Amino acid sequence: MKEIRVFSTTQRFVHWLHVVAFLVLMTTGALLYVPAFRGFIEGDGGYLSRLLHRGGAVTFMLLPLLYVAFDPRGMLDSLQRIFRWGKDDLGWLKAAPRYYFFGDDRNMPPQDKFNTGQKLFYDVVVLGMVGFIATGLIMWFGKGSVSPTVFLLSVLVHDLCTIAYGAFFLVHLLLTLAHPLMKGSIDGMLFGWLPEDYLKHHHARYYEELSARKRLVQQRQAAPRPQAGPSLEQA
Amino acid sequence: MSKAMLVDTSACLACNACTVECKRENGVVVGKDIFWTRIQTHEVGQYPTVRQYPLKRACNHCTEAACLSVCPTGALSRHEEGFVVLNQDKCNGCGYCTQACPFGIPQLDVMDQLSGKAKANKCSFCVERTSKGGQTACAATCPFGAITYGERDDLLSQGKARVAALQAKGKSKANLYGENQMGGLHVLYVLEDTPEAYSLPSQPQMPAGVTLWQRITRPAGEAVIGLAAVGVLAAFATARRNVKIGEEEGVGEHEGD
Known about the structure:
By secondary structure, chain A is an all-alpha fold. Chain A is 72% helix and 3% strand. In chain A, helix 1 packs antiparallel against helix 3, helix 3 crosses helix 4 and helix 6 (116-141) packs antiparallel against helix 7 (148-178). The longest helix of chain A has 31 residues, at 148-178. Chain B is an alpha+beta fold. Chains A and B meet through helix 3, helix 5, helix 7 and helix 9 of A and helix 3 and helix 7 of B.
């Protein structure tokens, strides 16, 4: 079966580094909220968990820098796609419950490289990163120099980001690992390639875009070059 | 019944004996601007009628304590006698209490900014002495009897009598501070002037950030994440039963294709 390249090495590396940072941050952060885990955050244990949280935070802040340094085009492309919303997204939201619960895809509108649900998640991730980093830096370095109101507000925003991030993460995790309709999709993030069939079914609009681009390139290559113009070397 | 301290500012000479004795008694870090109690002076009026009011500034041991609500480690706890105890061994230096206190009392002794190594500092009502029936070190040491340790109810009536006496002497603004603030403070103050003259908030409030955090963010967070988990598990379970072909024929080959 034909495979199509969907994610660059940088994209996959950044994704998995994000996973590591997220798990460290989420665990050390959640400890604060679960009374049963108090033993881990008292005294010296607390120093350790706060130190780990800071290590996770530095890794987390490196992610966008690594991404933009090694794959600026991929980053721009993905950013454009996840913030592009249309009326198909409404159709997706309406049809999604029947699809995800019962496998009924009759009313599912064709999707771009990222479907509506993925876009929602990635928008939360991007905005959440901004929120996490801004409020986290205030909590790390601003204690005492910003007003208590600003500090407490930062804690609040940090928490809200965690709630949104965490909820979507659970959905993301279970869809990738456990949902029968998404079987195999994790290969895209592990190896960078997905079967042509998978894209046709799950990301028809994107598949169409790729096919159209390919046809265009083939036409250009087949026909004698009409005149000098912008060349399209990459399929 | 609960214990309290009554601070009579009209008897205080700002000698700072309490400040020194507190540091000695509690082993409070020296060489840094960190105190569990200290005397602050506030100047009011215009020359030639300037007055300087002394105020013993320390934890007020609120009944509705913001610091207690935000402390994640349990380093801060409520003593059975009503006051708020800080156990520094449990403190991990997060500093939330320093930001939540409406009086700005707890101080963070930061040992390392980058790693966050720090300890909170605040009055613990000399818990080791008072638990054994003794009185607080500052009350024991004050040469002018301006600090009294005892039952809160007794001190309330003592304080009111002292205020009445001051008023009878012509100090019409004299008042007792701490009876109702933050659900009732466990440190009561006889003031000769308005609370504002001593830089005390007349109506201290639980910060909105703390209230939102406890009443809304936390339950909302649990609800949202719980709902996401339940929803996704339900989708997974239902889909497994309903989507049959997908598992045999590979990716994307399911009913309706």
